[in-house]
Amino acid sequence: MDEFERRTEADEARVARTAARFRARARRVQLARRVLPVAILLLAGGALSWTVLRTVISGVERKASESREVRLDNPVFHGQDAAGRSFIIGAEGAVRDPATGFFRLNGPVLRLNMGGDAVTELTADAGIYDQTRKTVTLGANVRITDADSGFRLITPEAVVDTETGIIRGDKGIEGTGPLGTIRASAYAIHDQGERIELFGRPGEKVRGTLSAAGD
């Protein structure tokens, strides 16, 4: 076999190998064209299915949580503090949160009887009653009145310790009492207004009654 024939055969072999590689690549491309759209559809369908599934699961969990809630119409809670003095918590409606045990109050009214006929009354738009910690957090639009001591107060929030009868808040308070106008950034009401502590922020002048009438 002469040199020319050897070169011809080598060229034909290279062409055959190139053609084989080209055909193999063409088959891979054709396979990819068929498989990729299917894979994309499967991935998109899986993502959509997972989203729908999570939505359904969330809805079921939410309904299950709501079904465990205890709803009360016009509830009334009675109790006593550490000294045996009574208090009453009423509301237009209440919902007991199964996760925390708190009662969410709508239109609450809280009456503290610290002895005799003296009653301190608090009203608000909403509130939270924590029976375990023996606290009632009221807000917003809290109104505090006591006919015996004569104070009339308005505050965005009031936290009542039903164990001691002390009313506190740090979101401001204003109103009137036996000795004049009350206005401060924070407050603590003891013994149904017989002692009212008023606090201001640093550098702020506190205006109000620091001790109630009768002192």
What does this structure look like?
This protein is an alpha+beta fold and 215 residues long. It contains one helix and 17 strands. It has one helix spanning 3-68, and strands at 70-73, 76-80, 86-90, 93-96, 103-106, 109-113, 119-123, 126-130, 135-138, 142-146, 151-155, 158-161, 166-169, 173-177, 180-184, 186-190, 195-199. Strands 1-4-5-8-9-12-13-16-17 form a nine-stranded antiparallel sheet, with helices on one face. Strands 2-3-6-7-10-11-14-15 form an eight-stranded antiparallel sheet, with no helix packed on it. A hairpin with a 6-residue loop joins β4 and β5. The chain is rod-shaped, with a radius of gyration of 38 Å.
List keywords for this structure.
17 strands, 215 residues, alpha+beta, nine-stranded antiparallel beta sheet, 31% helix, eight-stranded antiparallel beta sheet
Record the SSE blueprint.
Elements: H1 3-68, E1 70-73, E2 76-80, E3 86-90, E4 93-96, E5 103-106, E6 109-113, E7 119-123, E8 126-130, E9 135-138, E10 142-146, E11 151-155, E12 158-161, E13 166-169, E14 173-177, E15 180-184, E16 186-190, E17 195-199
> Percent helix among the residues?
25-40%
Q: Count of helical segments?
A: 1
Name the shape in a single word. Answer: rod-shaped
Radius of gyration over alpha carbons?
A: 38 Å
How many strands, which pairing sense, and closed or not: the largest β-sheet?
9 strands, antiparallel
Strand content is 35-45%
Multimeric status of the protein: single chain
Q: Which sequence of SSEs, written as H and E, runs from N to C?
A: HEEEEEEEEEEEEEEEEE
Q: What is the average of the pLDDT values? A: 78
N-C termini distance:
131 Å
Number of strands: 17
Q: Uncertain runs with pLDDT below 50, 5 residues or more?
A: none
The class by helix and strand makeup works out as: alpha+beta
Provide the spatial order of strands within the biggest beta sheet: 1-4-5-8-9-12-13-16-17
